[in-house]
């Protein structure tokens, strides 16, 4: 049938298109089973290609308390985020928790490590009390190894592992993707996309990168742009990458959809140094303009402490005694 429009729009018309699930801004296009927003969606419904709600604008509650408290509507799933943190802010633990929360949701995850051996990356989960062995066995977790190529004597490294690390390495062997020459962006991009294809990661899951600082400054800009285009925008899979504070103003951040800052701050009333987190920017979602005081308490992860801190730096942390007790 040809699509037909109704000139009068009763109040009981649906607010969302039956195909794309976006709001219908004008008169709906009528189908055999309902209403759509356009001829394109009408034809797509006829081809049985209706989108899975709400794929067109999915947002993710990360499961990390301080971050979710500042992004109440969720992080858009097509985002490239950078975590900019100074030493002592536990931004690596934040990356680890983001992966764990994705696994808890039943989603796959990929970790790209350039600073640490894969077994040490996995050990961070066990240190927090999070058992990733089942996720390794059912192929929901992959580690893309951009570190091992640096070792001059890999055999000696393997021989010196204790029994537990040897066990973890053997268990994770099929889940570790070792890149032999990750000195250029192309092998890394290819290795990551092949891994995501293998995990069938489209509109699901999460990718983390332990440190953008490990990639050459001359290529970092193009590297981030390529990752953002081929993974975040094409697959609707978010990437969250860590970086140290001294390159937080790096030009590669021009391509980032979001920037999360982590800092250490002195609490003047209690003479206690505490950690704070704030969302500098986040395209496509609401974020609160505040600093949140937090602490790391495994296996619970990162927890909000007290109240927020205004953007002008005035602390509104209400319970400094509790803060002092957790340091």
Explain this structure.
The chain is α/β, with parallel strands linked by helices and 327 residues long. It has 10 helices and 15 strands. The strands form 3 sheets. Strands 9-8-7-10-11-6-12-13-14-15 form a 10-stranded mixed β-sheet, sandwiched between helices. Helix 4 (118-127) packs across helix 7 (163-171). The protein is globular. 39% of the residues are buried.
Features:
globular; 30% helix; disordered N terminus; nucleotide-binding; 10-stranded mixed beta sheet; 10 helices; Rossmann fold; 2 domains; 3-stranded antiparallel beta sheet; single chain; alpha/beta; 24% strand; disordered C terminus
- Tell me, rounded to a whole number, the average pLDDT: 84
Q: What portion of residues belong to β-strands? A: 15-25%
- Which CATH C-level class of the largest domain is it? Alpha Beta
CATH architecture of the largest domain: 3-Layer(aba) Sandwich
CATH T-level fold name of the largest domain: Rossmann fold
Number of structurally distinct domains: 2
**How many helices?**
10
Our measurement of the CA-to-CA distance between the termini, rounded to an integer number of angstroms, reads: 68 Å
Give unreliable regions as ranges: 1-9, 315-327
Pfam families: ATPase (PF06745)
InterPro entries: KaiC-like_dom, P-loop_NTPase
Domain KaiC-like: 61-302
Keywords: ATP-binding, Nucleotide-binding
């Amino acid at each position: 049938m040809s699509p037909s429009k109704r000139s009068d729009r009763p109040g009981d018309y649906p607010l969302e298109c039956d195909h794309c699930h976006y709001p219908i801004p004008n008169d709906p296009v009528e189908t055999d089973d309902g209403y759509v927003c356009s001829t394109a969606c009408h034809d797509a419904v006829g081809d049985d290609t209706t989108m899975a709600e709400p794929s067109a604008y999915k947002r993710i509650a990360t499961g990390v308390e301080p971050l979710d408290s500042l992004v109440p509507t969720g992080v858009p799933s097509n985002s490239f985020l950078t975590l900019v943190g100074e030493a002592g802010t536990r931004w690596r633990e934040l990356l680890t928790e983001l992966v764990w929360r994705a696994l808890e949701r039943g989603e796959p995850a990929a970790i790209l490590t350039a600073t640490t051996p894969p077994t040490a990356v996995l050990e961070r989960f066990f240190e927090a009390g999070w058992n990733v062995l089942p996720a390794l066995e059912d192929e929901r977790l992959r580690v893309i190894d951009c570190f091992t190529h640096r070792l001059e004597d890999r055999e000696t490294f393997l021989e010196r592992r204790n029994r537990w690390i040897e066990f973890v390495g053997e268990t994770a062997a099929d889940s570790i993707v070792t890149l032999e020459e990750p000195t250029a962006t192309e092998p890394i991009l290819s290795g990551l996309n092949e891994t995501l294809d293998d995990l069938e990661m489209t509109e699901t899951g999460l990718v983390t990168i332990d440190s953008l600082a490990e990639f050459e400054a001359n290529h970092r800009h193009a590297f981030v742009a390529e990752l953002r285009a081929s993974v975040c925008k094409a697959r609707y899979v978010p990437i969250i990458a860590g970086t140290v504070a001294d390159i937080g103003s790096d030009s590669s951040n021009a391509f980032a959809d979001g920037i999360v800052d982590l800092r250490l701050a002195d609490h003047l009333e209690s003479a206690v140094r505490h950690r704070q987190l704030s969302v500098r920017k986040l395209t496509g979602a609401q974020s609160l303009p505040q600093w949140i005081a937090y602490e790391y308490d495994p296996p619970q992860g990162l927890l909000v402490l007290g109240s927020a801190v205004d953007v002008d730096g005035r602390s509104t942390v209400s319970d400094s005694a509790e803060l002092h007790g957790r340091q």
